[in-house]
Amino acid sequence: MLVFLAVTALGAIFTSTSTDMGTKGILDRLLQVRPRIVLMEDFAVYAGKKTNIKQKAIEVANALKDTSEFEKFIICPRGADVGDISQISKSESLRTFLATERPIAREKLFPQHAFDTPQLIAYSSGTTGQPKCIVHGAGGVLISQKKELPLHYNIGPSSTQMIFTTTSWAMYNKSITSLLTGAHIITYDGSPFHTAPTVLLEIAAHHKVTHLGISPRYLEELERRGVEPKKQFDLSALEMVNCTGAALLP
């Protein structure tokens, strides 16, 4: 999320995939948009299992190294140190990047651009061929979300939104735009069933979430495990549940 906000503040273009994608899925997207800077973690953590993804980073960086725009591959540590990253083309650690790059002067943040200046690139699913790049302009995103969030979702400064999503899905971008209304947002990284099948519901109850975004598969799994949210948790703050990603069974 910090990368999204920082890139937006600079007037640059943001796009994202996720670490659970295979190398081909990542490159099907990145080779089309030809990024200048790529940030990637060294480990992925899911359901309590830590997976080293440096080999994936090596493959992605090697595929990008011959594109003229590509300059840096920044490794972000999940632990204290990224270790040896010498095999990753044009790589450096996040710590080195932050220590050597000059800070941007505050007056240079949020530069004025044309209304249709690209802000972010999302992608189609890729189920019918190579993923298609969908470019969203800064003005369009701003107007659409400033209209949609308060009018369609009733999201405002007193709202708390949590959407369970990965960084490769459009709903990730959607969740961050709720900050435009002054709302609070909660992001969750990992399995929604670890360390308990009710972990998301526990978070929603504790933080008095008003807008919850989930998937049909998640609801099916709760039903299969005999979880009854209203009986087990105080969800009285909840105003809206958004469910997307597949057909919702009755």
Please tell me about this protein's structure.
The chain is an alpha/beta fold and 250 residues long. It contains nine helices and twelve strands. The strands form four sheets. Strands 10-9-11-12 form a four-stranded parallel β-sheet. The longest helix is centred in the middle third of the chain and has 15 residues.
CATH architecture descriptor name of the largest domain: 3-Layer(aba) Sandwich
CATH fold-level topology of the largest domain: Rossmann fold
Strand order of the largest sheet: 10-9-11-12
Report, as a whole number of angstroms, the end-to-end distance.
34 Å
By CATH reckoning, the class of the largest domain would read: Alpha Beta
The H/E string reads HEHEEEHEEHEEHEHEHEHHE
Strand percent estimate: 15-25%
Biggest β-sheet, characterized?
A: 4 strands, parallel
User: pLDDT average, as an integer?
Assistant: 93
Please mark out the parts with pLDDT under 50 across 5 or more consecutive residues, or reply none.
none
Number of domain modules: 2
Number of strands: 12
Shape: globular
Total number of helices:
9
Please state the structural category: alpha/beta
The percent of residues in helical segments reads 25-40%
Rg calculated over all Cα atoms: 19 Å
